[in-house]
Amino acid sequence: xxxxxxxxxxxxxxxxxxxxxxxxxxxxxxxxxxxxxxxxxxxxxxxxxxxxxxxxxxxxxxxxxxxxxxxxxxxxxxxxxxxxxxxxxxxxxxxxxxxxxxxxxxxxxxxxxxxxxxxxxxxxxxxxxxxxxxxxxxxxxxxxxxxxxxxxxxxxxxxxxxxxxxxxxxxxxxxxxxxxxxxxxxxxxxxxxxxxxxxxxxxxxxxxxxxxxxxxxxxxxxxxxxxxxxxxxxxxxxxxxxxxxxxxxxxxxxxxxxxxxxxxxxxxxxxxxxxxxxxxxxxxxxxxxxxxxxxxxxxxxxxxxxxxxxxxxxxxxxxxxxxxxxxxxxxxxxxxxxxxxxxxxxxxxxxxxxxxxxxxxxxxxxxxxxxxxxxxxxxxxxxxxxxxxxxxxxxxxxxxxxxxxxxxxxxxxxxxxxxxxxx
Length: 423
Ligand code: IMP
Known about the structure:
alpha/beta, Adenylosuccinate Synthetase, Chain A, domain 1, Adenylosuccinate Synthetase, subunit A, domain 2, 4-stranded mixed sheet, binds inosinic acid
C-alpha cells in the first residue's frame, strides 16, 4: 500500500491526528495538502501531548519525512511557533520537514479582512477559525496571492506586497479599519523568512522518487468532507478542497497512485462554527457528550456542538470519497450512555430525502430518522482487541458498518497511540 490518504468524514475533529501519528510509524512520507493552521490535530505519544496545526502529524516518527504541500496556505509565525515547540520537545526537524515554496502565505490583511467579512454577516457569520484562511485562498484564486517562493526573493516580496497593500488598504479603510503599514509587515516577514529558510524545499521530487521506489506515502487530509468548499454545507465550509482529489493539486500526487482511502469517523458527531447539523443535541445528552469527549476546539478552544451519529452523512461521505476502509474513533466516549441513537436517514414533509438533495437551508428543515440501540455502560477505554469489547459496543460498531456499507478496520479506544483495535 504505497499511497494512503486519510480523510475526515464528518465536520472535522474526528481524531485524524492521533490516527495519522499511529499510521505514520510505517510511513516514509506524511504529507499535508490543504488547509492552514485552521486545522488542529492532537497527538499524544511518548514525546508528550501536542496540538499540531500545520506540521504533519507524522513528524514524530524518526524515519518519516513530513511534507507541507503547495495546496496549504501558511501563517509563517504560527508555523515557526510549531517548529520551535517540536524542537524543544527533542524532535529533529532537519532534513525531515519539507515545505513547498509554492505554498501561499497568510498575510496580516487576510485576518483583518476576515474579521470584517464575519462582522458584516452578523447572525449569518460562518464562525471561521479567524486564521485568515478564506481570504488567503481567495487571493490565490484571483492571482493576488503571495507565495513562500516570493519571500525567498526579498525584492519580489516587497513589490508584490506593495501592490497588494495598495488594494487591501483601500478596502480596509472603506470598511472603517486602520490601514496596514508596509514596512512593519516587511520587517516581520524578513525575520520569519530567516527562520523558515532551512525547511523550504519542494517535496515533489522526493515524493516522485518515493513513488518510483515503492515507499509508503501517507496523505494527511485536514478538515473534513462536510467542510469541503464544493460538497460541504456551503457557505458554512472551509476554503479548500478536502476531498482525496485535492491531493493531486495540493501535493502533486497523481490520483492513480492512491491505493487506500481511509475515512476517519467519530462514534458520534461534532461541529465547530455555524451551519446546519441535523442530529445536533441541544440538551443534557449533548452536554454529556461534550464533557465525556472533551469536545473543545484544538485550534480555538471553542466548545464543539455535539450530536448523534449520522449515517446519512456518512453514506454520502463514503460515496464521494470512495473510502476503502474506516477508522472509528472515540468509542470510549459512549461508555456511560444507557441508549445510543443512530440517524439512519432524513425525511422532508414525510418523504425520504438525501443529503445531496439540497443546500444548507434544506438541511435545517429535514427531520432525522433514528434507530435506538442499547448502550454498553462498561469501560472500553484502552481495549486493544475487538473480542474484549462489550457485546453492545460490537453491535453498535456493526450497525454503523451495515448503515454505511464499508468495514471499520480500526477502532480507537482512547487518545494514546496504543489505544487502538485493528480488526
Ligand atoms: P475557516 O477554515 O477558518 O475559514 O473556517 C470555516 C469553517 O470550518 C468554520 O466552521 C470552522 O469552525 C471550520 N473548521 C476549519 N478548520 C477546522 C478543523 O480543523 N476542525 C473543525 N472545524 C474546522
